[in-house]
Amino acid sequence: MAQVTERKGPGRPPGRTAQGHATRQALHDAAIDLIAERGYEQATMRDIATRAGVSPGLLYKYFPGKQAVVLELYDTLSQRYAEASLKMRPGSWRERALFAMKASLAVLGPHRDVLVALTPVLVGDPEQGLFATSTAGSRQRVQGVFLTAVAEASETLGRKEAESLGRILYVIHLAVILWWLLDKSPEQRATSRLLKLLTRLGAVVGLASRLPGAKGVMRAVDGVIVDGLLGDGTAAPA
Amino acid sequence: MAQVTERKGPGRPPGRTAQGHATRQALHDAAIDLIAERGYEQATMRDIATRAGVSPGLLYKYFPGKQAVVLELYDTLSQRYAEASLKMRPGSWRERALFAMKASLAVLGPHRDVLVALTPVLVGDPEQGLFATSTAGSRQRVQGVFLTAVAEASETLGRKEAESLGRILYVIHLAVILWWLLDKSPEQRATSRLLKLLTRLGAVVGLASRLPGAKGVMRAVDGVIVDGLLGDGTAAPA
Fold it and tell me: Cα A186 to the chain's mean position, in Å?
């Protein structure tokens, strides 16, 4: 871990200069490393400062708390994901959604240790969790990838229908990520197997989607997702 | 919250006498209340003792730590669930699995506050989480309900097939419980809607299960579940 040198200058907001940027990055890395090692609750700001070799005061100048570190991580990873998803090729919504899921695992892969340590926060924390207000920006960026995957797929879907399907695929993607974080098999091979299975099941769903009533089921699934998970808990049920 | 009166007696193990039992229950209730209010990490053993009006020393005699409180909660709830499931009627596996899911929500319902507070632990804690070794007893009790639901269903299934289906339904049940804990809709109505949807989708799955290859898919899904979530992470893939 690189030690951080402190440079004081009046009226210089932290992180705006090249050195400020490097300091910020080093502090962020130290925080992420410590959270990955000890868990979110056990990694204190004091310990993070010690690890980075700076005073707690300097650390607080850059990050008002661990929460800020975590939100920045979400922000960085969701941006990288949005960039990676630009490589999505034309194809059916099933092909594109599978690409989007694999791209997500590829972007998150190198950060699995800290994400495993953050799983309790991601799933259970109403303030910094997956469905919290503070994380809405990152969430919408990721959701946007799935909305685009369907909207620009080779099949012709109505706008509302495409939005419903995009949201459903986004939530399935979250379930896959949670699975991957909990996956106990060596090198998470069970997640690769799960994706292959989803591909097979997707083919069945593709056939079933031509049955009468399929659109109604899709709208109903989307309605429940918005009502229970993605909405603010006040919307009337569809 | 009932105050607890301390009675000392040499050679009397905590919780074995009638008064010991009442004390134990009162301490457990105080711990659960405080965890529900503040969250697992924030509720300290000292605060729990204060809440119950006893010395920390007495609390530690009954519970060596918060972990013991949580494991006892799992144990109690899974026992109640196993008892409630004895009322399962004859029927198809789909009817019986739906009964088992509703029974689970009915047993857990009155304890939703503390379970929401414990969601980070349940999902993210390798020591006390859903798939941890320490919770294996409670987990197997609950899984057993789903195995029985299928094994004694009106359809005739092979033993291995029934086991696979039971495990898959158990994991779907866990996903429903997680959904219910995250459900932001008023009175978790989105969870009731989800169960209705699962019933509709179950009918489609019932039809699809007659297609050639359905058994193979089921075995594959079960294999991935055992490999990734339920196993000890060392089993070779099927």
Answer: 23
Alpha helices, DSSP H only, in chain B? 18-38, 45-52, 56-62, 66-84, 93-108, 112-124, 136-151, 159-182, 189-208, 214-225
- The residues in A 158-177 lying below 8 A from B, measured between CB atoms, are 175
Q: In this complex, is the C-beta atom of B201 within 8 Å of any C-beta atom belonging to chain A? A: yes
B214 to chain A, any CB pair closer than 8 A? The answer is no
Question: Residue A123: what pLDDT?
Answer: 87
Q: What CA–CA distances, in Å, run from B111 to A129, B47, B121, B238?
A: 21, 21, 15, 38
Higher pLDDT among residues A133 and A143, named by residue:
A143
Average pLDDT of chain B is 89
Confidence of residue B28 (pLDDT cuts 50, 70, 90): very high
Confidence of residue A28 (pLDDT cuts 50, 70, 90): very high
Say which amino acid occupies A204.
V
Prediction ipTM score: 0.87
C-alpha distances in angstroms, A57 versus A17, A28, A45, B5? 19, 15, 10, 46
Q: Which residues contact A140 (CB under 8 A, 6 or more apart)?
A: none
Question: What does the DSSP assignment read for B150-176?
Answer: HHTSSS---HHHHHHHHHHHHHHHHHH
Q: How far apart are CA A128 and CA B75, in angstroms?
A: 30
Decide if B86 touches A, using CB distance below 8 A: no
Q: Is the pLDDT of residue B203 over 70?
A: yes
User: Any residues with CB less than 8 A from the CB of B223 and at least 6 apart, and which?
Assistant: A193, B237, B238
Structure tokens at B211: 């297609």
How far apart are alpha carbons A128 and A126 in whole angstroms? 6
Instruction: Kindly determine whether residue A188 and residue B232, on different chains, have CB atoms separated by under 8 Å.
Output: no
Average pLDDT over residues A180-195: 95
Q: What residues contact B76, with CB distance under 8 A and at least 6 apart?
A: none
| Chain segment A198-214, per-residue pLDDT in tens | 998 888 888 878 888 88
